[in-house]
Model the fold of this input.
Amino acid sequence: MSKHSQATRALKRRLGPAVDTSEQGCWAASFDSSKISFLPEAVITPRKEAEVGVVLTLANQHRVPVTVRGRGTTLMGSAAPIAGGWVIDMLRLNKIKIDDEAGMVHAQAGAKTGEVQRAAAQAGWFYPPDPSSKEFCTIGGNIACNAGGMHGGKYGVTRDFVIALRGFLPTGELVEWGTATKKYAAGFNLRDLWIGSEGMLGVVTGAVLKLVPAPAARWTLLTAFADETQAIAAARALFRLRVQPAICEFLDRESVVCAERATGRPVFTGQPNRAVILLELAGAASEVKEVSKVVLDWANEHALAHRAARNRDEAEQLWQVRRKCSGAMFELGDTKLNEDIVIPMRAYGKFMTFLAGLKKTSRLAIPTFGHLADGNLHVNIMFHRADADESRRAEAAVERLMQTVVSLGGAISGEHGIGLAKTPFLRIQHSPAQVAAMQAVKRALDPKGILNPGKMFEIYEVWKQPKLAVHLPWDHK
Ligand SMILES: Cc1cc2nc3c(=O)[nH]c(=O)nc-3n(C[C@H](O)[C@H](O)[C@H](O)COP(=O)(O)OP(=O)(O)OC[C@H]3O[C@@H](n4cnc5c(N)ncnc54)[C@H](O)[C@@H]3O)c2cc1C
Done:
């Protein structure tokens, strides 16, 4: 008999076919992209918003842990139901409606980010937050993790686009934080408290999101530099010119080698072993034309080589460098610790010196790429799990990385959150008083500790745990 079988029977009586207790259904909801698995006792797929409230109310009555799930693309283990209990799968609550006049989109939490972007584009609008997982992940998951993407530097991240939220408190009451208006100063801002709360302070069922006019023109330029130090110095010079690229992606030399291996061709013929920056301008045609001249002058002065796309097909070819590098990293090790750290621009130089040292002392491949316009770098520590020595070195490297990031004034996570995987480092970022304040908020909103327990505050060393050998559709993307 399962731990919460009486509660699950009560749940089935209330919600009938929305409740799945099959072995297969529970297994599929037992893990996210971290591939650490904990079996729930039931998976509830609400078709109506009110059903979410029913689940939470019953869970509080019977003290059943509940984990909310979008698509399970989080790499942090934040959607893995570590305490068992029930999983709420949000995928069927997925309606999208554009408010053409106000420049807003009303999206249910289970709507996929890519679908929201397409609906916006069809109406001549643009929804900029663009996690690489956008064809899989949901708006609810993006809000819960405050997801970012390549457009972050110019446009911002999910938080910058959330106008209002609707959903349920952990105790099961329906609440609305804000309305579909651009201004709102009525009371405490609990909307922003929910954003980035990783499904621990409430369940989002719907959101009103801001749209911006779709850019009429885009222009893409790939630039090569002798090394990482030259590349970041050049990027800082570009920002000083007040140029705001829509995208400014950096790849270190190790990442470029990965991309070259995956595409089977050199990034720049005759320029082996270079760090690169991929730039994209977006905006009105006249503005893009004007700014592209400034950028070309900058590239002529700072870069060893550069190549501009003449059309969208050529731009897509340039993009292959960025798209292909991540998957190819698995030739360097079967395990990747993808650390989405953030560094303040003024500390870029110091960080690059540290990273070069870390590669040397750890004797591990650490290909690094990321968004230079907002300091969010993806430091990918590659190792073989079966090799105890490599695993130890990887563990030490992550610890040093996190210490250094915080000492440079940065953040241990820019977009993936804490979940389970970053729990050993939360206290590097936060003082005891800060952690206690966060825990007090959690207790106030979720007195019985129902919603997504075991995350963020309790230390769990996820990379040391056995992982399921499953291949997910978004693996190695
Ligand atoms: C290949 C790949 C690329 C990625 N690229 C990026 C990237 O570029 N930028 C980026 O930011 N992230 C990226 N991610 C991470 C991940 O896709 C994002 O964190 C995404 O926002 C998770 O959405 P999801 O719907 O899959 O949520 P899930 O993984 O299902 O859940 C994530 C967290 O959100 C909570 N949650 C989900 N839905 C709700 C809801 N409705 N209400 C309350 N809480 C909820 C869950 O409980 C959990 O804590 C990537 C992941 C992969 C695998």
Residues 388-407 form the longest helix (20 residues). The mean pLDDT is 96. DSSP finds 15 helices and 18 strands in the chain. The chain has four domains: 5-91+447-464, 96-213, 217-329, 332-416.
